[in-house]
Amino acid sequence: MQSWKMEFRLLWRSRMSRMFLLAYLILALLALYWGQQRVDREQTFHAQVVEQTQQVLASYQAEGAEALDPGYLGYYLFMPVWQTPEVWAGVIHGERHEHPVQLRIRLLGLQGQLHASEIHNISALAYGHLDLAFVWLFVMPLLIGALSVNLLAEEKMRGRWPIIAAQSSNAVVILWRRLLLRFGMLAIVNSVVLLAVLLITPVSFGISWLLVAMLVLLYQLFWMVLAGWIISLKRQMAFNTLLYLCIWLILSFVIPGVGYLLQAQQQQAAEHIGMMTEQRQYMHDRWDSDRQADLDNYLQRFPEWADTAPLGEGFDWKWYFAMQHMSDLMVEDRVEDYRQQRLKALQLQQAFLWSSPVLNLQTLLNRMAGNDTLAHQAFLDQVIAYHDELRDFYYPFLFHDASFSEADFARIPAFVYQAPKQSFLLMGLMQFALGFVLLLGLLLSRRKHWLESDL
User: Fold this and answer.
1) What are the UniProt keywords, alphabetically (predicted)?
2) Residue 172 burial class via C-beta count within 10 angstroms: exposed 0-12, middle 13-18, buried 19 and up
3) Which range of residues forms the domain containing residue 223?
4) Residues 13-49: tens digit of each pLDDT
5) Which residue among 184, 288, 383, 402 has the highest number of C-beta atoms inside a 10 angstrom radius?
C-alpha cells in the first residue's frame, strides 16, 4: 500500500498530468453543456413552429368552417414533423447535423419536400459539432498516450530507471502500478463527467447510463492496454509517441475514412436531386395536358375515389392534389432504390466495425442516441406514412365534397415520431468486446518477454 501512495504522490505532483486531466475535464463539461444547449434550442424552435401552426389553425377557425376551402387548407397549412431527440442526443450528437430533422409538410408531392431540405444541410457537414462523444472518442486516447506511453522511456532517458528498478524485485510491477494509477485517475474524471450527464441532460440513472459508462471504461482500457503494449517494446520516446499517434490516426481516421468512401460508392449522391427534378417536370407537364384524362388515370389506380364528380371548366383542387400524388408515384421506384442504397451502406458499415474500436464505439453511441442513418431513415419512413394520413383526411372533402365542420379541425393528423429499435446494438457490443480481448491477448503474449528481459 505504501508503494501505491508513493506512486500517487508522484503522479499528482506532476504539473503536466494535473493540467492534462483538468483540461480534459473542462473540455468534456463544455462539450456536454454545448451539446445539450443545441438540443434545447432545437426543442424551443419546434415549440415555436407548433405554436405558429396552432395560431394559423385558430385563424381559420375564426373565419368559420363553412367558409373554408379544404383544398386551400391542404395547400397552405404546413404541418410540423420532427425527429424528436432521444435523451442521449445532447451527449452524442452523431449524424444529426447531416440530416433534416425538422420539416414542415403539406399535401403537395412529398419527395420534393423531403429532399429539398436535405440539400440545404450539406454545408453543416464541413465543421460538425463538438459533443461529449467527440471528447471520448478522439481526445481521451490522446490524453492516455500523453500520460502513459512513455512511462519507461522517459525514466530511462532521465537516467532514473536503474534506481527505480532496484527498489523492487520485479520492475514490471512498477510499470503496471503506474499504468493502473493513470487508468484510475482518468476513470474518476470520466465518472465525474458521467454524473454531470445526469444533472445537465434528461438522462436518468438506469441501464442505458450504465451501458454508456461500461463502454467508456472499456474504451479507456483499450487505449491503456495499447499504451502498455507499446511500453513493452522498450523503445525510445520518439518511437513510442510516433507509433501511438500512427495507430490512433489509423483507427480514428484512416479506417473510418475508407469505410465512408466505400459507403459513398454504394449510394448515388445526387439521386434525390434527380428525383426532385423528375417530379417537378411531371407537374409542369400536367398543366398543359388533358386534366380530366389525367384524373381518370389517377382514379383507375385509386378506385376508392372513382365516384367523384367530373372536373369543371375552372381549377379544381382534387385534380391538383391527385397530380401531386402522381408525381410521388412517378419516382417511387427511385425512392425505394435510394432507400435500399442507404440501408446497404449501413450494412457495409457494420462490417467495418471489426477493424476499428473508434468506429465501433462511435456507431454504438450514435445508435443509442438515435442520431444515426438508421434512425433518420425510420424518420423518413414515418413522414411518408404521415403524409398518407394527411391524404386520407383531406381526400373525402376533395373527392366526395364532404362538408368541413368545426370538429374536423381537431381531426387533422399530427405527427408523432417513434424511435426505431436498437437492432445493431448487441452485435456492436460483441464486436467491441472481441476487439478488446484480441488486444489484451497481444499484450499478455509479451508478458513472458517482459519478465525474462532486463527493463
Assistant:
1) Membrane, Transmembrane, Transmembrane helix
2) middle
3) 1-455
4) 677 888 899 999 999 999 999 999 999 999 999 999 9
5) 383
